[in-house]
Amino acid sequence: MLPSMKRKSYIILAAVIVLFAGAYFARHWASDWWYSMNRPQLPKALTYQEAEANSPNQVTPAPPSPVESGTSTSENYVLESSPPALNPTPSVDPLAGPINLPDKINLAVPWMSQAPHSNWDMPYQEACEEASMLMVDGFYQKRTKFTPDEADAAILKLVDYENKVRGDYKDTTAEETAKILRDYFGYKDVRVLSFKTVDDIKAIVSRGYPVIIPFSGKDLKNPNFRNGGPLYHMLVIKGFTDTGLFITGDPGTRKGEDYTYPYQRIIDAAHDWNGGDVSDGAKLMIVVLPNK
Questions:
Q1: How many angstroms separate the Cα of 126 from the Cα of each of 50, 56, 182, 233, 239?
Q2: pLDDT at 205 > cutoff 70
Q3: Angle at 151 between CA 150 and CA 156, to 5 degrees
Q4: Beta-bridge mates of residue 260
Q5: Which residues lie across from 286 on neighbouring strands?
Q6: ∠ CA(30), CA(260), CA(268), 5° rounding?
Q7: Nearest-angstrom CA–CA distance, 205 and 193
Q8: Quick count: other Cβ atoms within 10 Å of Cβ 92?
Q9: Rounded to whole angstroms, how far apart are CA atoms 17 and 23?
Q10: pLDDT tens digit sequence for 150-188
Q11: Residue 263 and residue 237: Cα distance in Å, rounded?
């Protein structure tokens, strides 16, 4: 082969190598661009304050008693010295009663990855529960975001607590996660509720409360999960659209902020740990009610 032909072959080979190397290193950028171009339009995100103001659970205080001073009403007397709050606001279960579901809602729950610095070694590959709890707490603490360093430090601190108190941090059930939310984060009212339908979840989120749900990870069918997804996974449901999608804070992927799943997939994939037999686990959601 002539020297000039050899040089031309080398140039072509080098160009091919550069082309393939460029495509390899640009694959994440291309994937992110495609995802951003095709992601659904989401409702405006409501902060905790906005969600609280719009909540249907607001109770209007009872008006002052119309009974004049010194007048007998049945066997009770209303005296001039009586305190003005004769009819205190009744205690109302914030989850009780019917609710008119909105077409869409989106709570501004700050997102974090369970691997904030893209390190998926232990403990991060098992930290979806920790990240989910921290996201919900961040919402009630009126936090707008977590930096990678903040998220990393918070996850490691929570993992350390669980190791000391529970002896382990991995694969916490819904009930165990609720206990951590009470004991570590200090929430007084944390409930584990069973559900069957889409509206069961919508009814909680519509009142302004994000929910944490455990899943059979592979049944979520998230294309961004490694190896088809984990056996067990937790994420936060923070809203829903009028096009049949739940809006989530999914810590299991770098694209998990505002990640959307079809309604029915969430229902089908939801399963508690169940001793490792996740596919037969109960459909449960963890509801954290903010302290007042």
A1: 33, 37, 21, 9, 25
A2: yes
A3: 100
A4: 247
A5: 192, 212
A6: 125
A7: 13
A8: 11
A9: 10
A10: 999 999 999 999 999 999 999 999 999 999 999 999 999
A11: 11
DSSP state of 107: B
CB-side neighbour CA atoms (13 Å) of 50? 10
Cβ contact 73:60 at 8 Å: no
Pairing of the two strands 257-262 and 211-216: unpaired
The owner of tokens 């994440």 is 28
Which residue reads 């080398």 in tokens?
10
> How high does pLDDT run on average in the chain?
85
CB atoms within 10 A of CB 201: 23
Say what the pLDDT of residue 106 is: 98
Place of tokens 């050899």: 6
Specify the pLDDT at position 64. Answer: 41
In this prediction, residue 229 carries a pLDDT of 95
Q: Is the pTM of this model over 0.85?
A: no
Tell me the per-residue pLDDT of 87-98, one tens digit each, with 9 for 90 and over.
Answer: 545 578 999 989
pLDDT at 55: 73
Q: What is the residue whose two structure tokens read 């009770």?
A: 76
Angle at 287 (CA atoms; ends 114, 249), nearest 5 degrees:
30
Parallel/antiparallel/unpaired status of strands 105-106 and 76-77: unpaired
Q: Which residues contact 99 (CB under 8 A, 6 or more apart)?
A: 56, 203, 206, 207
C-beta separation of 251 from 125 below 8 A? no
Q: How far is residue 60 from each of residues 38, 52, 88, 91, 203, measured CA to CA in Å?
A: 44, 14, 10, 12, 21
Question: Domains, the chain, ranges and CATH?
Answer: 96-289 (3.90.70.10)
Backbone angles phi, psi at 280, to 5 degrees: -105, 10
Q: Which of 139, 136, 129, 263 is nearest to 202 (CA)?
A: 263
